[in-house]
Write the structure tokens for this entry.
Amino acid sequence: MAKYIFVTGGVTSSLGKGIIAASVAKLLQARGFSVTIQKFDPYINVDPGTLNPYEHGECYVTDDGAETDLDLGHYERFLNIPTSQANNVTTGRIYQTVINKEREGAYLGKTVQIIPHITDEIKRRMLLIANTGDYDIVITEIGGTVGDIESLPYIESIRQLRWELGSQNCLTIHLTLVPYLSAARELKTKPTQHSVKELLSAGIQPDILVCRAEHPLTQSIRKKLSLFCNLAPTAVIQALDAASIYDVPMLMLKEKLDLTVISMLNLTTKVTPDLSKWKSFLEFMKNPVNEIKIGLVGKYIELQDAYKSILEAFVHAGVANKCKVNVVNISSEEITGKNVNKKLKELNGILVAPGFGERGIEGKIQAIKYSRENNLPFFGICLGMQCAVVEFARNVLKLKDAASTEMIEETEHPVIDLMEEQKGINKKGGTMRLGAYPCNLQKGSKIAKIYGKEDIYERHRHRYEFNNEYLEHFKDAGLSTAGINPESNLVETIEIFDHKWFVAVQFHPEYKSTVENPHPLFVDFVSTCLNG
Ligand code: GLN
């Protein structure tokens, strides 16, 4: 039978529950357990696919085409195992299931209520992954903060599950903040005490407290928390601010969080965790031999979380090249034909980001034109590839008003157009081309060399595509379409051979880059930016 760890958050949001959950999982994995993580989000959207990145950061896409919370990206990057739709559930999805069942008459005339019907559906989904039998330990992160009205059904479900599964099989880790008051020069435990009270009033005694703090927890603070929050002193774990998210597993190891979890769940383990790959990653990350500057050209650059997976893929690729990648945020709205030279000339390469809608499009096109003409390494992802196609059409093929029909519906040269299967779809939620699709890379192409193979699977999230009516026209002018979907013939990658590095892809390679498996496209791009 699987063991369950629930991770809740208190005092404030943004304490990094996802990173703590992923770190605990990493340590348990390193001790030989098979572990997975799932996240339950208390909002009413059925999934985050329709959310603006300014609301909730990047939308992360899994192999099976689920549009999910960005924490799933951390889970995959830390654990190096894929997640799926089952790993991310929202209140919207829970209610949708229950309401659909009610309409089918499945509740046989009963009044449908939060308890037991909503909580039953939450519990069913909490157990779903464990029921596959693939995992020794399932970690469930509850989004939001304890005390929020929205979180209550989840907390209640955890309370019920502890009874149903036995408390020796369940564990609750509560992540809180222990603020430092500089005037008093003291760490304050009161907010944590209140947060634990809040959990207790819902029937849950946390087993472990992980305390985010800017200063180390003294013995007396640990004792105080142990006394007032009713848990063992060894169960009070300090989580100091870390220079990098990848340091957090090591900080938790130092605090013996893994051993505390293992003993509380009555598990047995190998003596030492095997973290050799992780440690060598950290070693290279902290001691880079070189440094480069890469421009990230996008329209959501004010919010770092909007491009989370791209930024992390650069960290992984940097380590693989023993090089620190300094990502310079460049707002595509601010790039014009006049200032593009000034904005890009100090950079070793640029990545033009994915996105939706018209805002900032012309700036992206200017940046790509500059890279193409000045042999500056260029990497385009999704909308970034579409902009590269438009730029080439306008400036090389001389199709002056070439555009994507996403931006100009009536354009005379729709070089990027709505995919056939998308025509007639009006609903926005979950209707894009989503998830992993196969792609054949042309033998001898630059991209096939980078991957070291010709058959790849990559994840997608888009409605528009390269318009194959223009295919020959582009090829004749030197833009090669090296990657093709074998079933639909959709163009998935483009490249210009006669250039230092000019590759753009319709899929999202950033979703598949992990600490242990940095993505080959990012690794090769960084290598070229570094070595010329
Ligand atoms: N907006 C474009 C499309 O839907 C690109 C999407 C993306 O960059 N993820 O095709």
About this structure: Residues 354-356, 382-383, 406, 461-464 surround glutamine (CB under 6 Å). Residues 386 and 397 are 15 Å apart (CA to CA).
